[in-house]
Amino acid sequence: MTAIQKLKEENILLTISSLGSLLIKGAILLALLQSLLPLWGYWKKNNYYLALARPCALLQSFFTANAFILLIIAFLSNDFSLAYVARNSHPSLPFYYRLTAVWGAHEGSFLLWIFLLDVWTTALCFFSKTWKQDLRALALSFLGLISFCFLLFLFFTSNPFAAAQNALPQDLNPLLQDPGFFIHPPLLFAGYVGFSTAFAITMAYLVKGGPHWAKHVRPWVLAAWSFLTLGITMGSWWAYHVLGWGGFWFWDPVENASLLPWLAGAALLHVLIATEKQERFTSWALILAIICFSLSILGTFLVRSGVLISVHSFASDPSRGIFLLLLLAFITGSALALYIFRSLKTPAKNLKLFSWTSREAVLLLQSILLFTAMATVLLGTLYPLIIEATGLGTLSVGPPYFNSVLFPLLVLSLCLMGLAPLSQWGKSSNKAELLKYSLRQLLLALGLSLGLTLIFARQWNTAVIINLSLVFWVFLSLSPSRSRQASMGLAHIGFAVVIMSIILSSAFSKEREVRLQEGSSIELGPYVFQFIELNGLEGPNYRGVRGNFAVLRHHRHITNLYPEKRIYSVRNMVMTKVDIYPGIFHDLYLALGEPLDDNTWSLRLYYKPFIRWVWLGGFCIALSGFLSLLRLIGRKT
Amino acid sequence: MFHLTPKRKQRLFAILALMTLIGLATGLILYSLKQNINLFFTPTQALEAQLPLNHQFRLGGQVKPGSVQREKNQLTVNFVLTDLHHEIPIRYTGILPDLFRDGNGAIAEGHWENFGQKKIFIATQILAKHDENYMPRAVYEALRKE
């Protein structure tokens, strides 16, 4: 033992700390080569330098992948000589949560960010074999530049391999000790970071000029956006069952940070279909592609710089914020400059006019709507920060803002979705017939929603009826669609399902906060919750109590719910573990509040109708994205 | 002479559509922002601001150690938020968040109400952030200066 320590002190034996830092240094060097050599080759028209892009990119990816694996090993082997491991793990932490602890805080999640960037880089290396050599090399060069910047950031401000002297293990934040956390951050980051490939291809085209940009970039946007959809869906599911407030979306700035690139990505996907098919709206699509990635970096800035007072707030180190802000300005600025330069050099194409009832017009309008929605969310998110930064005071923008500004946009957007399947490429439709057909469908949808609301909810609610009829219109309008529109159909159905479930669950939820003594019971609508008993609980790294509640409906036993209250001993942090009785049409949701006196607890009970459909709809949207992606890949070969 | 070709006309329409939407959105945004902004105050600032009754705002501070008192047979809690200069009594009915604790930072959203002789702050929502070290920035500064 002492011999090993001596060797370690003399730096003969590599520690995880020194090896990890070495790998990152190597990756920094390779990323620099990956970005500079192809640019030099392009400048000098030298194919040998251009050809170096791919090996540099692959080797750089290999280095970061190893650094990431090394950090996983450090967590699994409880190597508390790393400050990051010590701050986010503990010997008593179950090994599967040690895996999630890898991305449980700032440094590790940044390494995950870079690792995923390199996964996308590697994917680009393999899926670009048929591309022109200079295009591929330039795209890899821009990816290398992004890697280089973020690796520098990682190494100098947030190195997960920084060593610690006798650090006490502090355990992982209990909120993150949940199965949902295995999959939510990697998916979300994969989506976020994925826009970098679309950005790099766009930049390569702006440098080089040439046709077929939309064809090359669309699969990458589609892939990134589908991952982002999955990540957001998983995130909202995690918030629902972990945060204990029965909500699935809080309009928290960190959530908005992921919604911004999603909205911009959706706008880009819509317009790209027209751009690829007809070489139309190219400028608008180019700008959206640049904005998408800028919003990803902005999101990273919002989450990682500590400027936010939010439920998620993680890091607070001013140098991190300034670096990210400079990077954002640099990347967006240079991309827009390049865009202006290119558009001045390219002669305007003489395209045929399009009709305002054609497919391309509907796509353009939908992308403008999505962009506007993005801009309103962006404003609501940044407004408090701007006010605070200019010293005008501190304030917060509440969820009612977002709900009220997005509502009219949503109504317009659903109307366009209802019209979309009727429109045709390059053709104007017979307006009278279109109007007649749509009106008939709309009336049918209105009747359906009116009937269903009155029969099942037995109450009049104008907002619900209007929204539901628009949702039903989207469903109805898709019926005559042909098979090649299947993926659009699925995405629109998914979106309509999400909207439907949001409307129904927010309008018809029931909620109670009560005091309840052991042995007594409480009613929530037709349900009766019986507080049977309370037992002690001993977990691997927590202790606590578990309640046992029987749920009855009309004297018939339905289920037992076991909500818990835990105290995680290392951080001395209290956590509520809710218990949910999930169902297709409604969830029952029970959370323990606080112990009051003599066997009495405060409780929070929810009846949440149609809540599962929010995530079901999200999965449909993501699935449609992946299906279209498969079709695009299949088309190429 | 500038001639409005059909192509230009169509582009003009597209730009007009964009502008109209953005204009509409801006109007909605400004209106909604006005309705839905919650100002944030420390106890000292809140007392200085003299806001009218029923004006909704956020109050951030430290939960004064030993001040948390529950009322019998209800979910109502009374406690005091302080920034070490001034103290404000808070009344809240509902379940407190897990991280609400004596001496921790907390934010209360609500309004002033007359309660007998004195004014107290009726909270409709209590936020204790999901980080045990969280403290509103202004309060943190005030505590650090002590």
Would you write up a description of this structure?
The complex is a heterodimer of chains A (637) and B (146). Chain A is built from 19 helices and 11 strands. By secondary structure, chain A is of the alpha+beta class. In chain A, strands 3, 4, 5, 6, 7 and 8 form a 6-stranded antiparallel β-sheet that branches. A 4-stranded antiparallel β-sheet of chain A has the order 2-11-10-9. In chain A, a hairpin with a 3-residue loop joins β4 (527-538) and β5. In chain A, α4 packs antiparallel against α7 (106-127), α9 runs antiparallel to α10 (213-242) and α9 (180-208) crosses α12. Chain B has 2 domains: 1-37; 40-145, Nucleic acid-binding proteins (OB fold (Dihydrolipoamide Acetyltransferase, E2P)), CATH 2.40.50. Chain B has helices at residues 6-36, 43-49, 137-145; strands at 37-41, 57-63, 69-70, 76-82, 87-93, 105-115, 118-127. In chain B, β4 and β5 (87-93) form a beta hairpin. Chain B is elongated. The model of chain B has no long low-confidence stretch (mean pLDDT 81). The interface between A and B is large, with 51 and 41 residues. β1 of chain A pairs antiparallel with β1 of chain B.
In short:
The complex is a heterodimer of chains A (637) and B (146). Chain A is an alpha+beta fold and 637 residues long.
Structural topology:
The complex is a heterodimer of chains A (637) and B (146).
Chain A: H1 2-9, H2 16-44, H3 47-51, H4 53-76, H5 83-88, H6 95-101, H7 106-127, H8 133-157, H9 180-208, H10 213-242, H11 253-278, H12 282-304, H13 318-345, H14 359-389, E1 394-397, H15 399-419, H16 431-457, H17 462-477, H18 486-508, E2 510-517, E3 521-524, E4 527-538, E5 542-553, E6 556-561, E7 564-568, E8 573-577, E9 579-581, E10 586-595, E11 600-609, H19 612-636
Antiparallel strand pairs in A: 2-11, 3-4, 4-5, 5-6, 5-7, 7-8, 9-10, 10-11
Helix pairs in contact in A: 2-4, 2-8, 4-7, 7-8, 7-9, 8-9, 9-10, 9-12, 10-11, 10-19, 11-12, 11-14, 12-13, 14-15, 15-17, 16-17, 17-18, 18-19
Chain B: H1 6-36, E1 37-41, H2 43-49, E2 57-63, E3 69-70, E4 76-82, E5 87-93, E6 105-115, E7 118-127, H3 137-145
